[in-house]
Amino acid sequence: MLWSCNPTAIPLNRSITLFGRTRVYCFQSHTMETNDETPKAKALSFDFLSKKPYSPPSWGSHLKPIPSHVFSLGHLPTPIHRWNLPNLPQNTEVWLKRDDLSGMQLSGNKVRKLEFLLAEAVAQGADCIITIGGIQSNHCRATAVAAKYLNLDSYLILRTSKLLVDKDPGLTGNLLVERFVGAHIQLISKEEYAKIGSVALTNVLKEQLLKGGRKPYVIPVGGSNSLGTWGYIEAIREIEQQLQARSNGVKFDDIVVACGSGGTVAGLSLGSWLGALNAKVHAFCVCDDPIYFYDFVQGLIDGLQAGVDARDIVSILNAKGLGYAINTSEELKFVKEIAEATGVVLDPVYSGKAAYGMMKDMAENPKKWEGRKVLFIHTGGLFGLFDKVDQMAPLVGNWHRMDVNESIPRKDGVGKMF
Ligand SMILES: Cc1ncc(COP(=O)(O)O)c(C=O)c1O
């Protein structure tokens, strides 16, 4: 194993007040680089939060530009297991890749993109990260946490309704994590966002921070640019390695995933097309529409000089329903029923809608899916469930007050608990 010093680590002084006393600490981001890629070596080493030189899979080595470095931020590889969904077409198998288990505060698909994006931010000498998204953006939450792990500040522009834009956004779901790690939050109304656009908004904040002597690095919505796309190109290499390690040789025919800003599906479809996996990728979009995403994915893969047509490598279907982050009670009931049937909790905004869309398509077009082995990517987002508790409440019952007879004699267990 090779260890060397990372020349781009940023030493940073921070003051912390604990028990009434303020102290200044000098933090240093992790400074080790390792070249040993095996999952076991990663688990045994202090690989987490380290930065290492990046080399692409052989089948992706013609893509350009190739990132020079990558941070280890996710708990990878994430598990793959059989998902016993009810009412599948004949002989269809669904398997689940648990990218929801890629971390805790960092959970979900965004961490894979951030591994590349933050390596570039650090290489450029950034001292803070700007990004933008919806009020319950999983991407903004993951960015705020990952940035703080690497001693970078984060500035988040969050989109909310006109009614709420001047109010304290509260602590529900992703906001709790963001505010705990000290992200600087600026709210913008949906109308302002639609009028000005995410690029101009992040530019405004960037100019302000530059004037204040900061060195910001801007990550676009969802971390979806060509550099972030490497995150899911790498995920395909990870799946290939997981399949190679299995003795009874499962081969996936299809990959199914939610699409919100396009980067995940761009990486998966390009990797699956170029690599040995060769599975058909189906994206279920939860906002905008398929035509928009075909063009957007095309832009991302053109940015890597891939020379392929997005329409040849992915099929994009609409699963938006009532609108982005808006759920019908039928969708929420589906999420609840899947949890009850399989133990797997889906988020309502992304994987919940994608799985609902997949099951609907399977019911309407069973021949398309019969006998196929499908890998569904659970992209996380569970903090978003907390934003839906009011709508979810009528769907869950199963509690009652325990019936105890006052005459039952006391018997001590472990601890007194009061
Ligand atoms: C939990 C979750 N799943 C899926 C997606 C969609 O991924 P992408 O933005 O790369 O299309 C997002 C973000 O948009 C997300 O937060």
Automatic annotation (TrEMBL):
Signal peptide: none annotated. It is found in: Mitochondrion. One of its GO terms (cellular component) is mitochondrion. It catalyses: D-cysteine + H2O = hydrogen sulfide + pyruvate + NH4(+) + H(+). One of its GO terms (molecular function) is D-cysteine desulfhydrase activity. PANTHER family: 1-AMINOCYCLOPROPANE-1-CARBOXYLATE DEAMINASE-RELATED. This is D-cysteine desulfhydrase. It comes from Durio zibethinus. The gene is LOC111282402.
